[in-house]
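>> received
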Amino acid sequence: MDMFEDAAPQGNQPEYTVSELSGAVKRVIEGEFGLVRVRGEVGRVSRPASGHLYFDLKDDRSVIAAISWKGQVARMQVRPEEGMEVVATGRMTTFPGQSKYQLIVEDVSPAGAGALMAMLEKRRAALQSEGLFDAARKKPLPFLPEVIGVVTSPSGAVIRDILHRLRDRFPRHVLIWPVAVQGQACAPEVAAAIRGFNAIAPGGAIPRPDVLIVARGGGSLEDLWGFNEEIVVRAAAESRIPLISAVGHETDTTLIDYASDRRAPTPTAAAEMAVPVRLELLASVDDLAARLSRGLAQGLTLRGQRMRDLARALPRLDALLASPAQRLDNASGRLSSGLTLCVSRKRGEFERQSGKVSPRALQSLIANRQEMLVRKADGLESRLTRRIDQARARYDNWSSRLAPSLARLLASAARDLDRDRKRLSDIGERLDAIALKRLEDKHGRLEALSRVHSNLGYTETLKRGYAVIRGDGKVVTRRADAENAVALEIEFHDGKLPAISGKASTPKKGPAKPPEQGSLF
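>> returned
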């Protein structure tokens, strides 16, 4: 009986649902810890496709789950990385779905400059191991660039210093790509500017820069942190245009300084590296022109004196030409006698050769040639006859082999023809049977439809006691049509019977009589 008794009363404690209890805990925690600053080491860091940032804050004994929503992440100056010691500012709340408390982080700052420097050194070592800072990658700066691209803020004093220095030294065409030089947007905008300048095609509407300057004024380590981001360092290392980094003062060092082709201590010094001094160049050109003129004059003088010295050592012209002229005279004197002697020798040789050629010798040569031609003709005829005999023998051999093969082919063709004729006859018989069967099927179906038509026709209905009334040759279905018809006809299943309509039985004249029910027969 004890198991059916009511449970003992639990006192006057209130009862909560799970949601009510979770809401009460949430209100207590959020009311007690409205805004807190927590110092700890960043543990696991996760950033899904939604853009929110999930990470852990831990020390040697405890771990707190932390969340930064997408908008809060965009406003952060420094994003937390695993192993980094930070001070997180936010508010405590609970997540009832998992019965846990968590910190909604609005801002993150490194716990002192030592943490930032440690993270910076770690990143520098990782990028250096990839070879992004190697000296072999660095490109020389052009001596006198036509176009200079400047990546900086358009509203700061840096761009004015650069333009002023370029104007003083050597005015050049300057393209400015405005970017944010501080904050969350700094790194992506600077990287996009470097890649954008490199993407300009040479010879297009917008001139392609010959050298780039990435400049910013001085500031704290946090202010210059955008130039330490990996995306900026990689863009600087990949730049095909020579790049000068001028970020901060001379004592400030950022990772872009290692990846750039030249580091300038200040933006003004970057402008001085980009172009030479125009007045110094003009003075140097004038000095070189004067030296060239003096060198040419002195060279002409020395060469003229040398030529005169050499001319005195040369013999006179008539002495140089006397011996060749005498040899020419001697040769011309011997030439006529030599020609006469040569002609006489050639004529004697020709007469000796012509004496050897006689009609008898020609006839003998022709006879020898004819005899040789006859022998060759006889040999050719015999070879031709032999070739014909060989070809005839081969033809007879092939013809003897062809007759049995042709007989076999004809026999095989006859067998195939008989087989095909039999198959055709079988197919014809099958087609005739199929056509006859289809005709019988159509005939049977037609008879069935005829029976259905007969069963459903009105004649069968008349046999069940119904009749068809026609007025003036048309079927009548309403009383008014029957009264207006002149002649009525009633059709029964065994015949038709004429009737008189009410209109026909009504007299033309006379006093009106009360309507009577007339007979239809």
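>> Residues 467 and 492 are 5 Å apart (CA to CA).
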